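User: C-alpha cells in, sequence out, please.
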C-alpha cells in the first residue's frame, strides 16, 4: 500500500503542478491517504512501522522514487522557464507597426510551439519514469526460483483489493496450495529435484491463470493465487484445472518416476475482512484439506 500511496502522491503533484518541496509532498501524501479512507493509526503504520520493516527490500524503490522526483522537478522547471519566457514576451509585445506586429506574432507562434514540444517531452519522460518504477517493483518482489511474486507483494495486493471491495464492491478470491509430503520428496530425491518440482508448479500456475491474477510463492512449498473480481465458484474452477494439469506431470530421477499431489484451501473476501482474517481463513481451509487426507480442495466461503 505504501508504494501505491507514493505513486498516487507523485501523480497528483504532477497533475496539480505542485512544487515538490518536502513539506508540500508530506501534505499531499497525507491528503491522498485520507482520500483512500486510511485512518490515522494505519497511516502511522504505513509511514513508520511497515515502511521500516520492509526497508531493506524497498531501498531500490526509494532510490528510484528520489530519482523520479528529481527528474520531474527538472522537467517542470524547464517547462516553467518556457512559460515565463512566453509571458514576458507577450507583455513586451508592441503592435504599433503592423509589419512589426506580424513578425512579433510569428515569433510568438514559434515560442508557443516550443512550449508545447517541451510539455509533451516532459510528460513522455514522466511516463517513462513511472514505467521504470513499476518494472523495478516487479523485479524487487519476484522469487528467483519460480518467477512468482514474493509474500510481501501479496500483502500489498490483498490490501489493495480489500480497498476496492469496500469502495466499489469488487469481489475477489484466493486459494493457497501446499505440496503434499514435500519434505519426503526432498529427502528421497534431493533438493535439486525438489527445486525442479517448485519451478514446475510456478510455471504451471503462470500458464493457467489470467494476466490480472497474482501468483505468489508464499513460502517454501506453499503458493497463493489472488484472483481479483472473481467469485468463489470461478476460483474453484481454476484450482481444479491446476490440479488436473499438475496430475499429468511426471518427475524423474534416473530410472525412478513420481508425481506430486496438493492440498488446497480456497476462500473469497467478506465484508469487513482484513488481510489477517482472509489469510487466516484460506490457511485454515488448506489445513482442513491436509487433515482430510491431502490431495483435496477445501472451500471456506
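Assistant: Sequence out:
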Amino acid at each position: 500500500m505504501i508504494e501505491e500511496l507514493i505513486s498516487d502522491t507523485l501523480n497528483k503533484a504532477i497533475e496539480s503542478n505542485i512544487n515538490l518541496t518536502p513539506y508540500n509532498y508530506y501534505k499531499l501524501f497525507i491528503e491522498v491517504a485520507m482520500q483512500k479512507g486510511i485512518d490515522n493509526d494505519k497511516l502511522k503504520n504505513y509511514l513508520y512501522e511497515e515502511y521500516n520493516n520492509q526497508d531493506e527490500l524497498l531501498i531500490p524503490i526509494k532510490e528510484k522514487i528520489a530519482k523520479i522526483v528529481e527528474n520531474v522537478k527538472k522537467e517542470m522547471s524547464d517547462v516553467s522557464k518556457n512559460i515565463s519566457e512566453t509571458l514576458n514576451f507577450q507583455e513586451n509585445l508592441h503592435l504599433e507597426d503592423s509589419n512589426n506586429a506580424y513578425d512579433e506574432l510569428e515569433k510568438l507562434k514559434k515560442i508557443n510551439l516550443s512550449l508545447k514540444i517541451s510539455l509533451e517531452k516532459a510528460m513522455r519522460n514522466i511516463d517513462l519514469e513511472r514505467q521504470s518504477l513499476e518494472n523495478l517493483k516487479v523485479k524487487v518482489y519476484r522469487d528467483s526460483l519460480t518467477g512468482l511474486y514474493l509474500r510481501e507483494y501479496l500483502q500489498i495486493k490483498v490490501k489493495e483489493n480489500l480497498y476496492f471491495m469496500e469502495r466499489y464492491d469488487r469481489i475477489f478470491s484466493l486459494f493457497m496450495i501446499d505440496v503434499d509430503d514435500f519434505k519426503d520428496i526432498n529427502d528421497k530425491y534431493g533438493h535439486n529435484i525438489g527445486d525442479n518440482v517448485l519451478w514446475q508448479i510456478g510455471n504451471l500456475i503462470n500458464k493457467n491463470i489470467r494476466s490480472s491474477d497474482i501468483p505468489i510463492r508464499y513460502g517454501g512449498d506453499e503458493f497463493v493465487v489472488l484472483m481479483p473480481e472473481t467469485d468463489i465458484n470461478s476460483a474453484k474452477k481454476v484450482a481444479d484445472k491446476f490440479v488436473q494439469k499438475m496430475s499429468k506431470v511426471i518427475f524423474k530421477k534416473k530410472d525412478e518416476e513420481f508425481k506430486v499431489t496438493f492440498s488446497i484451501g480456497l476462500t473469497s473476501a467478506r465484508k469487513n475482512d482484513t488481510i489477517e482474517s482472509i489469510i487466516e481463513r484460506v490457511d485454515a481451509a488448506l489445513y482442513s484439506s491436509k487433515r482430510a487426507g491431502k490431495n483435496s480442495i477445501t472451500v471456506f466461503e
